[in-house]
């Protein structure tokens, strides 16, 4: 999946096809006509309220696609606040980026295939060096264990 160019309508249509939902049920839930439904499938973007309804109906977090885009392609935030100062910002404050298993798998695939070096990943995706090396150590050792377990012949 290309996280740089997100076409949410196409992704919704793919998920709808996977779930094999009837158009009448979808139109009833979203309170729309079949023509409006087709326009949604063609839409590159849509309102967050409508996307939330789709997420509930299709049991899939479409917002996570945008979150992953932000992790990969947005510059890190600069924090000018002094240490110990209390923020008066009413917006929720998140402690750190959360890397999903899909992101970790994607990054490790880039390394194992030779498409990118560790240094390129650190530079391009701004993943901390220690985090990347922990992923490589953790997931490469679990793969080795799995391979070694699979190579042991079963007792008949």
TrEMBL record:
SUPFAM superfamilies: Homeodomain-like. InterPro entries: Homeodomain-like_sf. This is Transposase.
